[in-house]
């Protein structure tokens, strides 16, 4: 039986238009013998995005979406790892899945979104699309985290926005999940919008791990806000 268990707690959600949204959660980690918990929750983030403009032209890759949004929305179809420090059983920073509006941007870097679908310019800049985030989380105590000696970086220009960050590789995934000291916990968020309904519609779920006997269904932290344009 794993020594630790992760609980993901919803904190807040904001829905804008054309895929603009944010959803914040907190990680709480407990030990099966009630010991003090300090270490890291490592999350594998897998993100996919598709968008159509007013002419029904499709944009499905990170580079296509970056060009469409004049480099204001990046990392649209990427996978990576990030690490959240846990002190006394709670994450120091909140996790925020979020995205900027997926539409054209003006010269000042502002998205071309409108208060009403009846606006005279709306039809020229309307979009439809979908975004999917999946975060798979495990816990490592400090000793195990540092023993892995993975080449983490901390840079505000990564999708993790200053948190510990690693681009995805199968080897890193194997190393992290083999060393995990908790069951996996998953946080899934799907966002959709269309030409007639530009407001971002958010559906999210937290999937708890299965036990050996039966299946289970599913603030004090300071917000570490991911870059609006990069992912979360």
Descriptive notes:
This protein is mainly beta. The protein has one domain (4-223). Helices cover 12% and strands 41% of the residues. The longest helix has 10 residues, at 170-179. Residues 211-231 have low confidence and may be disordered.
Principal-axes geometry comes out as elongated
Number of domains: 1
Write the H/E string, N to C. Answer: EEEEHEEEHEHEEHEEE
Arithmetic mean pLDDT:
90
Tell me how many strands there are: 13
Number of helices: 4
End-to-end CA span = 32 Å
Low-confidence segments, given as residue ranges, are 211-231
Helix content: 10-25%
Structural class: mainly beta
Strand content: 35-45%
Largest sheet: 9 strands, antiparallel
Tell me the Rg in angstroms.
19 Å
Question: Brief description of this entry?
Answer:
This protein is 12% helix and 41% strand.
SSE blueprint:
Layout: E1 4-15, E2 21-31, E3 39-52, E4 58-59, H1 62-68, E5 79-87, E6 90-91, E7 93-99, H2 122-125, E8 128-141, H3 142-148, E9 153-154, E10 164-167, H4 170-179, E11 185-193, E12 201-207, E13 222-223
Parallel strand pairs: 7-13
Antiparallel strand pairs: 1-2, 2-7, 3-4, 3-5, 3-8, 5-6, 5-10, 8-11, 9-10, 11-12
Give structural attributes.
232 residues, mainly beta, 4 helices, elongated, disordered C terminus, nine-stranded antiparallel beta sheet, four-stranded mixed beta sheet
């Amino acid at each position: 039986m794993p020594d630790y268990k992760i609980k993901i707690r919803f904190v807040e959600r904001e829905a804008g238009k054309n895929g603009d949204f944010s959803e914040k959660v907190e990680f709480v980690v407990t030990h099966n013998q009630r010991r003090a918990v300090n270490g890291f929750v490592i999350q594998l983030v897998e993100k996919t995005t598709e968008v159509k403009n007013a002419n029904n032209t499709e944009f499905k890759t990170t580079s296509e979406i970056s060009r469409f949004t004049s480099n204001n929305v990046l990392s649209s179809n990427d996978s990576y790892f990030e690490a959240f420090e846990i002190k006394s059983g709670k994450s120091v920073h909140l996790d925020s899945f979020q995205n900027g509006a997926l539409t054209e941007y003006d010269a000042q870097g502002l998205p071309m979104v409108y208060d009403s679908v009846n606006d005279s310019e709306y039809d020229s800049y309307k979009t439809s699309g979908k975004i999917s985030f999946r975060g798979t989380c495990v816990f490592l105590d400090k000793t195990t985290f540092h023993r892995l000696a993975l080449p983490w970086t901390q840079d505000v220009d990564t999708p993790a926005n200053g948190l510990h960050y690693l681009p995805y590789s199968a080897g890193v995934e194997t190393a992290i999940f083999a060393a995990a000291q908790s069951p996996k916990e998953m946080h899934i968020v799907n966002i959709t919008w269309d030409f007639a309904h530009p407001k971002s519609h958010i559906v999210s779920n937290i999937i708890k791990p299965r036990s050996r006997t039966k299946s289970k269904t599913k603030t004090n932290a300071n917000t570490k806000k991911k870059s609006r344009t990069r992912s979360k």
